[in-house]
Amino acid sequence: MRKHLLALGATLALSPLMAQKIGVINSMSGPEAPIGESITNGIKLAEEDLIKKGIHVQLVWEDDTGKPQISMSAMEKLATRDNVVGVVGPYTSACSNAVSKLAQKYRVPLLIPAAAKEEITRQGFKYVFRMNAPADRYASSLIDASLTLGKPKTIAFIYENTDFGTSTSKTAKDYVATKGIQVVADEPYPKGSADYRSTLAKIKSKNPDLVFMVSYVADAILLMRQSREVGLQPQAFLGGGAGFTTSEFAREHAISEDVISCTQWTDDVNWPGAKDFGKRYKAKFGKDATYHAACAYESMMIMAECAAKGGSNRDKTQALLKAGQWNGIMGPVQFADYEGFTNQNNHPMLVQQIQGGTYETIFPKAFATKKAVYPFPRWK
Amino acid sequence: MAVFLQSLISGILIGGVYALIGIGLTLIFGVMRVINFGHGDILMVGMYLTYILFTFAGIDPFVSVLISFPLMFLFGGFLQKVFINRVLNAVAQNQILLTIGLGLIMSNTVMLIFTSDYKIITTSYSSSTIQVGGGVSVSWPLLVSFLITAVITAVLYWFLLKTDTGQAIRATAQDREAAQLMGINVKRMSIIAFGLGSALAGTAGALISPTYYIFPQVGSVFTLKAFVITVLGGMGSVVGATLGGVLIGITESMSAAYISSGWKDVVVFVLFLLVLLLKPSGLMGKSRT
Known about the structure:
The complex is a heterodimer of chains A (380) and B (289). Chain A is of the alpha/beta class. Chain A has helices at residues 2-14, 33-52, 68-81, 93-106, 135-149, 163-179, 197-205, 217-230, 247-251, 253-256, 274-285, 291-309, 314-323, and strands spanning 20-26, 57-63, 86-88, 110-112, 128-130, 154-160, 182-189, 210-214, 236-239, 260-263, 326-328, 331-333, 335-338, 341-345, 350-355, 358-363.
């Protein structure tokens, strides 16, 4: 009996020193690769910082190429063959939704860093946790920001038609109904279209005050380019995260200037370590850190800490994730049950605007660094 | 009215580029009876070639057509001579497998070299427009693409109708054995035809690159469109492919405007099905007995 106790004690004491095997599912190739790269980089920085804290992680990387079915196979592999303690990822809403069901089935703690679709944490799954604010926050933060800047009465929606676009625009439509803004156009589009001109011309003919777009990287650029061509001139262009928050988008100066977007994180927000993270990321990877990188970083830090404290045990890790509170580069993090969500971090979203080619936080007032440009200036 | 005109015009302009892709595919099928599933990937190679010329040599995408056309022609000829000539008498499934395989090699090689990151070519005129009045604006780069496509199509026509080589190609397409008996080097004609088809696909890629985005898997979208256009217009008919391309472009654009962007592909395929049901050989195709 004493020998067993001794062995148990030694294992528990030494367990933080054992490498924690954590799985990562990410879109490292395929159309979402640019954002997948941000997530990879965020996790790499987390790995470094964890070593400084004495926590060693053994990461098992799985590439889902942006496809839900591959994400699911990756999860099966991580859960059954690799025997990971927990999984961080995937990226897209479609993949995260698919994988969440498997995580619950296999009782593997899953911490989703940046997927928007609300339903993912509305399934009552104890093993599924989400770091970022869900789609309803994307909508409400952008609409609230617009209402403080002007008096828009009409809104047009154009969005990509998978889980991400559909859920974000749906919550936005519900929200604007409560604020008395009328929806004058509702246009879903299939990802990868070459030509949005006729759709944009249709929207232009309705003369909306606000144009709310939900797109990944490439579509965002094309949409804005073709909006300029068609002469769409609303009071503001509102970008629901993802494509509108990347450096690729900001680089297209002629068409991205003064576009408003919502984000989970900026490098000038006053959360502990946020600025340093931004600087380190830029120094190491040569690009500005996006919210995906910050979410992924914090997710990995939290998952690894819980795995270490939980002695590499999945159920214990789940319990620690549920009970814990953290305050890092993503601000205060706590996975709570509220408003029908399970294990959702009640994260405040920030609204930013591209001014002079860089992202400036404009809302909420507590975090704003610059005044917003409103209405959207005339296209040149 | 503005919406109607805007959709019509964008539809025609983009239809021109689609037509170019379709013509390339129909030439290859007409002459060799090979269904080239790697056609979209050849277009993708053309896009990357344009990207390289633009980024490293500062050559404007439209000007670089003069360089990419011959280069893609040589590339296509090489593919035909080394790979496709060997399977000309094989079962159709084997030919298809070969072209799919070539396509995979092309897209994955490009992915290795350039990564999957989307590349966007931004020129000074990328979002320039011409105001046609009535609130309708025409995209300048699309207009230039259309004009270049028209010129290329006209030259191709002249080539096929008036030159010896062109007529030899048509003869090979009509009846391979008879052409051989007439002393035409059909193997050489196949190489030229595939080279031409690839050059057209690559040029379509070059023309579309200022208004689209470039990534290694972009080929699959266009292969599918090329097939719809080619079968719609009639396999082997250059006029058919031209008509088919413009028709598909207009259909897509109009259905995006009047129904919904999400349904436009459905409308295109329904149209395709109707043509196949009512006139299986395509709009301009001759029924094969």
